[in-house]
């Protein structure tokens, strides 16, 4: 495009440099009034620079805007503004979003033909009409794809506005109209959609347009993404997967920016390697049927036990957890501390006692003068059991069958570590260690128990201390935990005298 000052008088004025449909419409109206035919209008070239470096001018004009005598001379009467049907104007506006080097010149040609009586230009049977319809269809398809495949990531509260951020790489200039769609959908929540060429920000009241503000999706982080991927894995049915159909429904260019795109290839590969054959075994097993009176042990066929914790399917908890959380500490330790189950932060990190309960346990270790690194830390149940509460995952106590299913892994840890003293934190850990569902925490606090050649000491679980509302009770529970760890250290030097302590 030429500078705005270069627009000749033959065009009837100097419209502002067009940067979108509204500016193109203004410049086209000026050219139509001046009678400038499409082949005589110079709309510039998209040769790496800005397409709109100035307004269009009549072809043949010199650098000063002077133009030889032509039907589009300055003496041509301006004439009334052309009246265009609303349907055609809507199509032109949609087609203006189609990225093509000659889009503005093409749209002007369509407009020129219509105003000169060639109304077939709006028909798909006309070459120009067919191209116009194709451009409109491609733009509307791109709008639909943005609605469907944009994934907003929620930022942490301390990051400030915008609360939700998304990245997309559109093929056409559809960001403004897509932004209006999300303004109506997202309410007063602040958000931003970034693309390689432009960005839009919604502050809850006003929509702001800006240039590119991000380099790519790598800048996006979402603490809830692990939960979403867990859900996606749980609903993925390998028995019904059709890779070709998935690729036809979701073009490959979208997968790279979708969170689930990172795990879909492995899920499809597992389906092709045999998971498809057993994908519905679990659901078939849950179907109702005749009750057979036989013990659970006798009904179970001989199966090869899992050799790795992340392969464990001994109960249903694995379906809802991010990952299994094993023990941590020296391979041989005189003291093993057993908790109940991993919490929300442990489930995401894959390590035991890294959340609020773990921080309080560190304080108990410090008061008891016991080095955490010298102790083997684990849980009776290896998967996080939870229930949804809004956007949060709240702890739910494991039932006895889940404790029994996971005792297989605790036995392996006990056999490998060979602790002299086992500290059971809470009732769930105590039931798992002693293999008794009738033992109570209240009756065993402060009373060492002999079990399978080791001492068992019972203390409160740190999460109990965090939940106690009364400060006096909180300090008392904390003191019980400290006292229990000190007793565990004393028992290391106590000989295994028959009849000493309680027997289990």
From TrEMBL:
Q: Where is this region: Disordered?
A: 39-82
Q: Is Transmembrane helix set as a keyword in this record?
A: no
Protein source organism: Massilia hydrophila
- InterPro entries given in the database record: DNA_repair_put, DUF4130, UDG_Type-4/5, Ura-DNA_glyco_family4, Uracil-DNA_glycosylase-like, Uracil-DNA_glycosylase-like_sf
Q: Does the keyword Protease apply?
A: no
What Pfam families does the record point to? DUF4130, UDG
Q: Where is the Uracil-DNA glycosylase-like domain?
A: 326-483
Instruction: Give the family this protein belongs to, as stated in its UniProt record.
Output: Belongs to the uracil-DNA glycosylase (UDG) superfamily. Type 4 (UDGa) family.
Know the name of this protein? Type-4 uracil-DNA glycosylase
Q: Which domain of life is it from?
A: Bacteria
Keyword terms: 4Fe-4S, DNA damage, DNA repair, Hydrolase, Iron, Iron-sulfur, Metal-binding
């Amino acid at each position: 495009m030429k500078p705005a000052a270069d627009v000749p008088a033959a065009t009837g004025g100097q419209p502002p440099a067009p940067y979108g449909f509204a500016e193109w419409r203004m410049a086209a109206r000026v050219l139509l009034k001046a009678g400038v035919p499409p082949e005589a209008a110079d709309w510039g070239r998209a040769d790496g620079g800005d397409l709109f470096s100035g307004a269009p001018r009549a072809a043949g004009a010199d650098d000063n805007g002077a133009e030889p005598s032509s039907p589009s001379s300055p003496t041509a009467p301006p004439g009334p503004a052309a009246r265009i049907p609303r349907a055609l104007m809507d199509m032109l506006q949609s087609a203006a979003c189609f990225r093509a080097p000659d889009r503005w010149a093409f749209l002007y040609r369509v407009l020129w033909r219509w105003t000169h009586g060639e109304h077939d230009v709006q028909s798909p049977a006309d070459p120009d009409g067919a191209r116009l319809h194709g451009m409109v269809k491609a733009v509307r398809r791109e709008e639909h794809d943005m609605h469907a495949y944009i994934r907003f990531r929620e930022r942490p509260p301390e990051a400030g506005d915008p609360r939700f951020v998304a990245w997309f790489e559109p093929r056409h200039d559809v960001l403004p109209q897509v932004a209006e769609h999300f303004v109506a959908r997202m309410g007063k929540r602040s958000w931003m959609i970034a693309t390689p060429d432009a960005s839009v920000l919604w502050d809850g009241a006003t929509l702001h347009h800006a240039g590119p503000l991000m380099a790519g999706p790598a800048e996006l982080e979402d603490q809830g993404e692990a939960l979403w991927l867990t859900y996606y894995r749980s609903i993925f049915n390998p028995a019904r997967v059709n890779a070709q159909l998935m690729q036809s429904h979701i073009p490959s260019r979208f997968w790279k920016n979708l969170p689930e795109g990172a795990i879909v290839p492995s899920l499809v590969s597992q389906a092709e390697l045999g998971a498809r054959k057993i994908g519905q075994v679990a659901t078939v097993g849950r179907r109702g049927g005749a009750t057979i009176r036989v013990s659970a042990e006798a009904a179970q066929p001989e199966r090869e036990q899992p050799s790795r914790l992340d392969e464990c399917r001994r109960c249903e908890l694995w379906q809802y957890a991010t990952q299994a959380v094993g023990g941590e500490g020296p391979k041989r330790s005189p003291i093993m501390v057993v908790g109940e189950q991993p919490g929300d932060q442990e489930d995401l990190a894959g390590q035991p006692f890294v959340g609020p309960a773990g921080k309080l346990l560190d304080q108990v270790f410090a008061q008891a003068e016991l080095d955490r690194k010298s102790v083997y830390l684990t849980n009776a149940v290896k998967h996080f059991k939870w229930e949804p509460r809004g956007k949060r995952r709240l702890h739910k106590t494991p039932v006895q069958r889940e404790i029994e299913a996971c005792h297989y892994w605790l036995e392996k840890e006990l056999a490998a570590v060979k602790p002299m003293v086992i500290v059971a934190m809470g009732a769930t850990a105590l039931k798992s260690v002693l293999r008794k569902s009738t033992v109570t925490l209240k009756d065993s606090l402060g009373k060492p128990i002999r079990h399978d050649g080791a001492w068992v000491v019972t203390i409160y679980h740190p999460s109990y201390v965090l939940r106690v509302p009364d400060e006096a009770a909180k300090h008392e529970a904390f003191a019980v935990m400290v006292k229990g760890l000190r007793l565990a250290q004393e028992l290391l030097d106590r000989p295994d005298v028959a009849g000493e302590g309680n027997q289990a």
